[in-house]
Write a structure and sequence with these properties.
Blueprint: H1 2-18, H2 35-46, E1 50-51, E2 54-57, E3 65-69, H3 74-78, E4 85-89, E5 92-93, H4 99-106, E6 114-121, E7 124-131, E8 133-134, H5 137-151, H6 153-160
Antiparallel strand pairs: 1-8, 2-3, 4-5, 4-6, 6-7
Helix pairs in contact: 1-5
């Protein structure tokens, strides 16, 4: 009974939070973990991860485009703008790097670290330094809530059934 109430509380909180955000357009992908186990694992995984405040379009893997810069974020402070094309991250070129090289570069995204982003803005290539911060609680809640609503859809529906 207690587990059921905890799950309902998470679902209600996630639904309330996500009601204020546009749909992600993600396909429903089933997560193999129990929702509460998954929430805890995600919170722990992101606990020491850095945040710079960008929403990206990765449809062109070699030239990801910046869709949105979160107001007040490290990215905004560094001068990054929507429409900029990301050429490199921490010295790793998107067009030539392997997935493993990009993953290792992204591991440098820790609170307090400076990350140099190479961007293309119009005809100009710029190197902009972003000072990563801790992920804000609201952003973390949005990520976890989005995952719950997308990847745990069946579990949530079963919990809502009387």
């Amino acid at each position: 009974m207690m587990r059921h109430l905890q799950l309902r509380a998470w679902i209600a909180g996630a639904a309330l939070l996500l009601a204020t955000f546009p749909a992600t357009g993600q396909e429903a992908k089933r997560c193999d973990q129990d929702a509460l186990v998954c929430v805890k694992a995600m919170a722990e995984a992101f606990e020491n991860r850095g945040w710079i405040g960008l929403e990206m379009d990765y449809s062109d893997r070699d030239r990801p485009r910046i869709l949105k810069v979160i107001p007040g974020s490290p990215a905004e402070e560094a001068g990054i703008q929507p429409g900029d094309v990301l050429l490199s991250f921490a010295g790793v070129d998107y067009a030539t790097a392997s997935e493993e090289e990009l993953r290792r570069a992204k591991e440098k995204l820790l609170p307090g670290n400076d990350i140099v982003l190479g961007v293309l803005r119009g005809e100009s290539e710029l190197d902009l330094t972003v000072h990563a911060r801790t992920i804000p609680e609201g952003v973390l809640a949005q990520w976890i809530g989005s995952h719950l609503l997308i990847a745990h859809k069946d579990e949530i529906a079963a919990a809502e059934t009387p």
